[in-house]
Amino acid sequence: MSDPTQSSDRRGPGDAPQRMEPPTTDVSAPFWAATREQRLELPWCTKCEEPIWCPREVCPGCLGTSIEWRPAAGTGTVYAVTVDHKPQNPGMAGWAPYAVALVDLDEGVRFLTNVVGCPPDDVVVGMPVEVTWEALPDGRQLPLFRPREVRAPDAAGARG
Ligand SMILES: [Zn+2]
Question: Where are the chain's structural domains?
Answer without folding.
Answer: 29-147
